[in-house]
Specification:
Helix content is about 70%, strand content about 0%. It is mostly helical.
């Protein structure tokens, strides 16, 4: 029987690959949406930060650079430049010495006195305008309290005034140096925390004394921190405004910032001359920001590796305790004490008479409509500005941390958000006054212009603190959420923001503190109907209502102290180091 025929196998054929579907218009739009969003964000903050500066410089170069000619053909400009540089360098030297000493002293405190580490930071809490007025109440030539006490000593009992004159340049430099010391202290304290203890121990084993270890090992290791902190302090010193305005202006001591204020507060306003006067500050600030970006580079590449943390290796030092306590008494307690005494007195004289103390000045603060309106304006504009700056800072921090696809946009955002930290507030104040007092945005006389300048000044702080929180958070939670199918928006709202809640709350509280005692930019953009606490204090100071000035200064200090307490409660006692 024949076997059944088996059909031959069909020949193998390779299927023809189908062409991939062409992306639709919607798909292409979604693909470019993140880049377009990043560009739109850059355009928004770029206009906010750069447009006022460009507008000022444009006026300075108009009419064959009339603004520069008016500014630098003035025979007094050379003296103003020398005074500005001298004040900045002198205050920098004081801040570097005191800040480094206090940072070292904080590492040599006995365990039960470690709380004293926060004392060198507290002068930041006191508004600059309050601190300066407090020093004036102490050392004005005739009615200053400490001057009156010094004239009872045998060396000066023949004097009718003095021996100290707070309205001279050396004392303005000293007060400015006290104010900058807290910033240097924060930088150097962080540097001490990063020093490897093994290097210190090796030097000690080799027979070096404590002083030798400090000057030959510790100080060279702190050089990068001292350089960077010194640049920041120098920028702040060049941009000082409150001390020179309140103490030096009436005595013929002019710096670039006060000259700018005069140019935009006179009638008619000379924006071109103001821009030319501020150009050295602008150029130096931009140069420092660029230097910082070149040196630091990518934020995410700094990782701490193994090694023993810094320990002093020495016994607790009572010299360190004494130094910190004395600094706290001089830089904080003395000016605040003077404010308290003047605020409780019916008038300011060189004598303290407790029997005449009264609360009438505080009653006036809360009864006079002009002052209460200024307090409300400060609180409202600060809260609104924080509410706007936080989301802007979140977007900027996200781009800096994860925007590697947009290298150019990312670099531009990094530069723009850093500019308000490097350029003095007086320059921004003049620029905003120009930009928003003419078409297309006429906002002069409204709270809106104050909010805009506040948001601009807070961009670096909002970005830096949230960037720090994002780096600490890592990518694990975000990757897990995206792997589970959640989109970017849902991951941000349900994962990232809840985990960043302490960082957001701390950043908001700290920005509120900084804004409630902001004085420089506020003085330039304010109007008679839109005062804030700092500007109303300046008006009463100019009118000679000194007890009322002291009461307003103390109210400002209480508001900022409450903000600091909230910030430290939410974000920890190291909140200032996160800046």
């Amino acid at each position: 029987m024949a076997a059944p025929a088996v059909p031959a196998p069909a020949p193998l054929t390779t299927p023809t690959p189908s062409a991939p579907p062409r992306p639709t218009a919607v798909t292409r739009a979604r693909r470019h949406l993140p880049r377009l969003g990043a560009l739109a964000f850059l355009a928004a903050i770029g206009y906010l930060v750069i447009a006022p500066l460009v507008g000022l410089q444009r006026l300075a170069f108009e009419d064959d650079a009339r603004g520069y000619k008016a500014a630098f053909d003035n025979p007094d400009m050379a003296e103003t430049l020398r005074t500005t540089a001298g004040m900045a360098l002198g205050s920098l030297a004081i801040a570097l010495v005191l800040g480094t000493f206090l940072a070292w002293a904080s590492t040599r405190l006995p365990p039960r006195l470690r709380l004293l580490r926060v004392l060198p930071v507290l002068p930041i809490v006191v508004p600059a305008v309050a601190s300066v007025t407090g020093w004036a109440f102490l050392f004005s030539p005739r009615p200053g309290y400490l001057n009156a006490a010094l004239r009872n000593l045998p060396w000066w009992n023949h004097l009718d005034e003095g021996p100290v004159d707070i309205y001279t340049l050396p004392w303005i430099v000293l007060i400015t140096g006290f104010g900058l010391t807290a910033f240097v202290y924060l930088f150097v304290s962080a540097g001490f925390g990063n020093v490897n203890a093994e290097l210190i121990e090796a030097a000690q084993v080799s027979g070096s004394s404590a002083a030798g270890v400090f000057f030959r090992v510790t100080l060279p290791l702190l050089r990068p921190v001292l350089v960077y902190g010194g640049f920041v302090a120098l920028l702040l010193g060049l941009g000082q405004f409150t001390g020179p305005l309140l103490l030096g202006r009436n005595n013929g001591i002019d710096v670039l910032t006060t000259d700018m204020y005069v140019a935009v507060s006179q009638s008619p306003v000379d924006y071109g001359r103001a821009a030319a006067i501020g150009s050295p500050l602008l150029l130096f600030g931009i140069a420092v920001v660029l230097f910082q970006k070149v040196i630091l580079g990518d934020h995410s590449r700094f990782v701490t590796h193994g090694g023993k943390a810094f320990r002093t290796g020495g016994r607790p030092s009572w010299v360190a305790v004494t130094g910190i306590v004395v600094y706290g008494l001089v830089a904080l307690a003395l000016p605040l004490g003077a404010l308290i005494v003047v605020s409780l007195s019916p008038f300011w004289s060189g004598r303290i008479e407790p029997s005449g103390f009264t609360l009438d000045n505080f009653r006036r603060v809360f009864q006079e409509s002009g002052i209460t309106d200024a307090i409300v304006n400060s609180l409202v504009t600060s809260v609104i500005s924080v509410a706007i700056a936080l989301p802007l800072g979140f977007v900027a921090a996200s781009l800096l941390l994860k925007g590697r696809r947009f290298r150019v946009i990312r670099a531009a955002v990094d530069f723009v958000v850093a500019m308000p930290l490097g350029i003095p507030a007086v320059v921004f104040g003049a620029g905003f006054l120009l930009t928003y007092s003419r078409e297309p945005f006429i906002l002069y006389g409204t709270r809106s212009v104050i909010v805009l300048v506040y948001v601009t000044l807070m961009l670096p702080f909002a970005t830096r603190m949230q960037l720090s929180g994002m780096v600490a958070l890592g990518d694990t939670y975000v990757e897990a959420s995206r792997t589970s199918g959640a989109g970017a928006v849902r991951t941000t709202t349900e994962i990232v923001l809840p985990l960043l809640r302490p960082t957001l709350a701390g950043a908001g509280a700290l920005m509120f503190v900084l804004l409630t005692h902001e004085f420089t930019a506020s003085l330039l953009v304010r109007a008679p109907t839109t005062q804030v606490m700092g500007t109303i204090l300046f008006d009463y100071w100019s009118n000679g209502s000194y007890p009322l000035v002291a009461a307003i200064a103390l109210v400002m200090t209480l508001v900022t102290s409450a903000g600091v307490f909230v910030a430290m409660s939410v974000a920890g006692s190291d909140i200032f180091e996160k800046l």
